[in-house]
Amino acid sequence: MTSEIESILGHDFARPVLLQEALTHRSGVSRGGRGPGAEASNERLEFIGDRVLGLLVAEWLIERYPDEPEGKLGPRLAQLVSQPVLAEIAEQIGLGAALSVSPGDARSGVALRATVLADALEAAIGALYLDGGLDVARRLVRRAWETPISTQGAPPKDPKTALQEWAQRRGFDLPEYRVISREGPPHAPHFKIAVTVSGHTGAGEAGNKRAAEQAAAAELLAQLTA
Length: 226
Fold this sequence. Notes:
By secondary structure, the protein is mostly helical. It folds into two domains: 2-150, Ribonuclease iii, N-terminal Endonuclease Domain, Chain A, CATH 1.10.1520; 159-224, 2-Layer Sandwich (Double Stranded RNA Binding Domain). The chain has helices at 2-9, 16-22, 43-64, 70-80, 83-93, 103-107, 114-132, 134-144, 146-150, 159-169, 209-224; strands at 176-183, 190-197, 200-206. α3 (43-64) crosses α4 (70-80), α3 packs across α8 (134-144) and α7 packs antiparallel against α8.
């Protein structure tokens, strides 16, 4: 499986432990492991992968749209690094099948959840960066994001703004966001947030509060416009 994933990611790891860590969901960690070299989940790699991905997509957008102002580039970036896009890419390249999760979570389909797939892809990008540098991570991003970036069209509105405008056009109260839960260590928190508009509710998960709010807004918009 390791060689298959290396082929998918386009990189032979000098430190295979980084790839193993990137593919280990927190439920798949051996609870007895502690200290240097102990098995770890992909939360730390997700933390750095998120930043690397943001940099590489921002770099690409600057090249692709040399005349666009920051006000238009920002929404493009937010959409391209959003949870739905990451989850779709992770599913397309077969990352979910390689994830290590607990037996119970495997039976319940945790590895197929959008938030888990998105986190794993960010962790894989973090592992690529730490093992091979920015150029190696860039190669994956330019290949895997080619379709999303080339079909984006006009700058999209971020989901929170779009949901607020949807509510205002209909005379509803503004969306209300609330934190359902906050889990994980301080360096790699995991938020679950719900948003409600006129009795309709959506939920989202992410590694920071703003991204979880965006995911919740996107999920509710999908319901309201279906």
